[in-house]
C-alpha cells in the first residue's frame, strides 16, 4: 500500500500492548496522521487500562495484543463486547501479536476480533489492515488465513478441547505461566493479583483437569502446545 493514499482517510486507533517500546515503535511507524491517516488516540498496557481507555475514547479500531496482564486480549474483548455491538460507530478489534498459536488465534476471533496479524507485518501493511478492519473487513496474516478457514469452516477441523474449555480465561493465563515455570509470586505480580488468588486458580485448574500437581499440569499444557 502507498501510505500517502491514506491521507484522505482517517481512523482513530488505540494501541494495547504491555511492552512500552513496542507501542512507541508502532506509534512512530503508523501514527503520523498527515502521512498515514491513522490517529493514535490512546494506549494501554493491561486489561484494566485497555477497557478504561477504549471506553473513554471510543476509537474505530483497537490494535490488541493477545497476552496481557490482567486476563489477556480475550478479557478485553469480553468486557468491550457492548462497544463492538453498538449500532452506530462500533469499536472493531485487530489482534496484533507475536504469537501464531492456534489457541490464541481462535480465542480472539471467537471473542469478536475482526482479524489477526503478527508483529512481523510491515508498517504499510498494518496501516492497510487497520483501514480494512475499520471498513468491516476481516484481515489475517497470509499464513493464518488458511488456518482460520480450516478451524471455523472445515468439517475436518480439530474438535474443541473440552478440557480446556472448562477453564476460565484467568485460569488459562495462570495455567500457561505455571507450565512455563513461573513461581506463584511471579504470577501474582504479572497478573496483578494476590499470591492467594494464584493458589486458588491453580487449585481450580488441577481440580477441573483432574491433575495432581504442577508437574502433571506442565505435561498436560505442553502436550497441547499451550506453553
Automatic annotation (TrEMBL):
Q: Where are the transmembrane segments?
A: none
Q: Which UniProt keywords apply?
A: DNA-binding, Phosphoprotein, Transcription, Transcription regulation
Q: Which residues carry this modification: 4-aspartylphosphate?
A: 65
Q: What single Pfam family name could you report for this chain, choosing any that match?
A: Response_reg
- Coiled-coil stretches noted in the UniProt entry, renumbered to this chain: none
Question: What organism does the UniProt record list as the source?
Answer: Streptomyces bambusae
Checking InterPro entries in the record gives: CheY-like_superfamily (IPR011006), NreC/VraR/RcsB-like_REC (IPR058245), Sig_transdc_resp-reg_C-effctor (IPR016032), Sig_transdc_resp-reg_receiver (IPR001789), Tscrpt_reg_LuxR_C (IPR000792), WalR-like (IPR039420)
Domain Response regulatory, chain residue ranges per copy:
12-134
Instruction: Specify the HTH luxR-type domain's residue ranges.
Output: 160-225
Q: Does the keyword DNA-binding apply?
A: yes
Q: Does the keyword Transport apply?
A: no
Can you name this protein? Answer: Response regulator
Check the record and name the CDD domains matching this protein.
Answer: LuxR_C_like, REC_NarL-like
Amino acid at each position: 500500500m502507498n501510505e500517502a493514499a491514506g491521507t484522505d482517510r482517517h481512523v482513530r486507533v488505540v494501541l494495547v500492548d504491555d511492552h512500552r517500546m513496542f507501542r512507541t515503535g508502532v506509534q512512530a511507524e503508523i501514527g503520523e496522521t498527515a502521512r498515514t491517516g491513522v490517529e493514535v488516540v490512546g494506549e494501554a498496557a493491561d486489561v484494566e487500562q485497555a477497557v478504561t481507555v477504549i471506553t473513554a475514547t471510543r476509537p474505530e479500531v483497537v490494535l490488541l495484543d493477545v497476552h496481557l496482564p490482567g486476563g489477556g486480549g480475550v478479557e478485553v474483548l469480553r468486557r468491550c463486547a457492548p462497544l463492538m455491538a453498538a449500532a452506530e460507530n462500533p469499536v472493531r478489534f485487530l489482534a496484533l501479536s507475536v504469537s501464531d498459536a492456534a489457541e490464541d488465534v481462535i480465542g480472539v476471533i471467537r471473542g469478536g476480533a475482526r482479524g489477526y496479524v503478527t508483529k512481523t507485518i510491515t508498517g504499510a501493511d498494518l496501516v492497510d489492515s487497520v483501514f480494512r478492519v475499520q471498513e468491516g473487513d476481516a484481515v489475517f496474516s497470509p499464513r493464518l488465513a488458511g488456518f482460520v478457514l480450516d478451524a471455523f469452516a472445515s468439517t475436518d477441523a480439530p474438535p474443541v478441547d473440552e478440557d480446556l474449555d472448562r477453564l476460565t480465561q484467568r485460569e488459562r493465563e495462570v495455567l500457561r505461566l505455571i507450565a512455563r515455570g513461573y513461581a506463584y509470586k511471579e504470577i501474582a505480580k504479572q497478573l496483578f493479583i494476590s499470591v492467594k488468588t494464584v493458589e486458588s486458580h491453580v487449585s481450580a485448574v488441577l481440580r477441573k483437569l483432574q491433575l495432581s500437581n504442577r508437574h502433571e499440569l506442565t505435561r498436560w499444557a505442553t502436550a497441547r502446545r499451550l506453553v
